[in-house]
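Page 37, continued from 36.
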């Protein structure tokens, strides 16, 4: 008997840190030690065994190795606490100190970018997303999407402030309200692929596949493109098109531009499809 296959996967992150070594060595080490953690809509952890016999929508994150000092972690935690209370000045100060303590750790840079974004300082937000990308060229949380979108905003291709507005949709828990807001976004900015990606997760069957294809037609960042392709493969496998789905996932895995998150998730989904045919 075939097991059920997961229907859709949403959100992705990459947590990694390294002290020293050449960039290629860091990338190889992270790739070899990456692991995937899944959670349901309530934030409860789900094992791979449970996931293999489940259906529905699930969040996942890609975790890499740890390797930063306790001081850097402490400074980062303090910064996040300040940020949660809206004390951005102290948050930036602590994040800057954490970055000096662990210059090869992308997390403080990533949070610096987000903190500046919250203050509508798009110039510094872009600067620190660029620095995050230079430290983690294979992806770190949504750094690829953020960088790509803010660069398009700077060029005038997208309205300034779009990415900040897009991130606010994450906090909408009501699925009906969220769907309405995303529909408004794609109607206003149909060229914004991340919105199509999120919209597809709220749809079923043929409508979901259409939304995925719409997203793939746009000028998307590599992370969003990878997510759309992986979810397309999942829909295809659900419809019994296992060969086509496997080929799609293989292309993601061997695409030299794919992020670690894309690659690891594509490997997992391909293995899931192969085992449960």
């Amino acid at each position: 008997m075939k097991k059920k296959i997961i229907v859709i996967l949403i959100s992705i992150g990459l947590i990694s840190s390294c002290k020293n070594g050449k960039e290629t060595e860091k990338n190889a080490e992270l790739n070899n030690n990456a692991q995937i953690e899944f959670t349901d809509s309530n934030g409860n952890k789900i094992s791979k065994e449970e996931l293999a016999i489940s259906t529905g929508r699930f969040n996942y994150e890609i975790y890499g190795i740890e390797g930063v000092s306790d001081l850097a972690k402490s400074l980062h935690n303090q910064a996040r606490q300040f940020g949660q209370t809206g004390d951005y000045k102290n948050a930036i100060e602590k994040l800057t100190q954490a970055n000096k303590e662990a210059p090869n750790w992308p997390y403080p840079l990533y949070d610096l970018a987000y903190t500046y974004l919250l203050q509508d300082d798009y110039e510094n937000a872009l600067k620190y997303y660029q620095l995050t990308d230079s430290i983690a060229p294979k992806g770190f949380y949504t750094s690829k999407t953020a960088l790509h979108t803010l660069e398009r905003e700077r060029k005038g291709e997208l309205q300034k402030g779009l990415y900040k507005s897009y991130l606010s949709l994450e906090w909408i828990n009501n699925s009906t309200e969220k769907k309405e807001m995303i529909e408004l976004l794609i109607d206003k900015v149909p060229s914004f692929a991340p919105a199509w990606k999120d919209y597809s997760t709220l749809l079923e069957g043929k409508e979901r596949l259409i939304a995925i294809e719409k997203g793939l037609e746009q000028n998307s960042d590599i992370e969003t493109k990878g997510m759309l392709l992986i979810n397309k493969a999942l829909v295809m496998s659900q419809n019994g098109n296992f060969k086509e789905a496997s080929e799609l996932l293989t292309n993601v895995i061997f695409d030299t531009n794919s992020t670690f998150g894309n690659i690891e998730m594509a490997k997992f989904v391909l293995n899931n499809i192969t085992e449960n045919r």
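DSSP finds 14 helices and five strands in the chain. Flag for discussion at group meeting. Residues 68-139 form a domain with the Serine Threonine Protein Phosphatase 5, Tetratricopeptide repeat fold (CATH 1.25.40.10).
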